[in-house]
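Sample intake sheet
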Amino acid sequence: MDVTERLSFFAALYKVDENPEKGMWMLYLTIVVLSIIVYKLGFAKKLPILKSFIIYLFLILGCTILTFLGAFLPVAEGLVVAALILIIYKIRLRQEKKQEANTN
């Protein structure tokens, strides 16, 4: 079995099999950015700067493990789907609040 057939979409896009160092760094950055987006859209609250720094530090460290899994499992793809769902939710919530404010 060829390893290129088992790569996830983003791993294949970044050609992890041909250039592993650059490809894994690109995959890592993609997963970090998508994780931050999902965190900000779905879970972030107003926190002091030091607590926010610690949360983002652990988020970035945790993405290291997700990157190794993301080479063959659809980790980044799942984060894209989660981000899209949260974006749709935020848009609908904003429209609903705007509509409720207009009726009052």
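Comment: The chain has four helices and no strands. Residues 3-103 form one domain.
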